[in-house]
Every structure is written in structure tokens, then in C-alpha cells.
Amino acid sequence: MTQASTGTSTPRAHPPRVPPGERGATRIADRVVAKIAAQAAREAAPPPPEAAAPHATVAVRHDTARVRIHLDLGYPCDIGASCAAVRDRVTERVRTLTAMAVPEVAVQVEHLHVGKRTG
């Protein structure tokens, strides 16, 4: 038979509360930032139907992300304007969703896809 408790245990001491700024840090993995960047590139310059989806590689150091986007574009198009739109959108989305600085977004156009001609 087990012995019953008498109810005279001492209360547990709670550790002192740590202020929020001193509790630690959240680390966002490079691959998560790369997925955010690739999605932002798709939003800014949707790939042609026969093209591969944009791919991103990212180097994160402290609170700074350097991004490289590889994508396909339709032809004809304004390549410079498309790349600028991708840079702007990627910078904005990564900064907003991760609170990281984005000093560099390099856009590399892998292929130009000619649209189907009618005639």
C-alpha cells in the first residue's frame, strides 16, 4: 500500500522573469529566406508557362541577407525593368517577413523564352 501525502510540501520557487530583450534570439535559416525570395521573384515576374520557377540562393550573416535569384523570362520583354521589379519585390518581402537588411539582390536571367507566334 502507498503512503498518502500530508499536504505539507514546500511551494516551488519560480525563477525570476527575464526581460523579453534578454531571452534569446530567433534564427531564420538560409533556406527559409531563399524560399521567401523565390516566391517574391515569382510574384514580381511570373515565369512563362514552359519555364522553370525562380530559384534563390541566400547568404545570411547576423541580420543581413544577400540574395541571388536565378529566373527565366518571356521574350520579348523589358529585361532591365523585370530585373528591377524582382529586386524591389524580393528586398521588400524579405525585409518585411524576416526583419533582415537586404543590401544586395543579384538577378541572373538564365533563359529567355520566346512566346508562341501566331500567323
UniProtKB/TrEMBL annotation:
Region called Disordered, residue ranges: 1-26, 38-57
Highest taxon above the source species: Bacteria
Ranges of compositional bias, category Polar residues: 1-11
Listed name of the protein: Asp23/Gls24 family envelope stress response protein
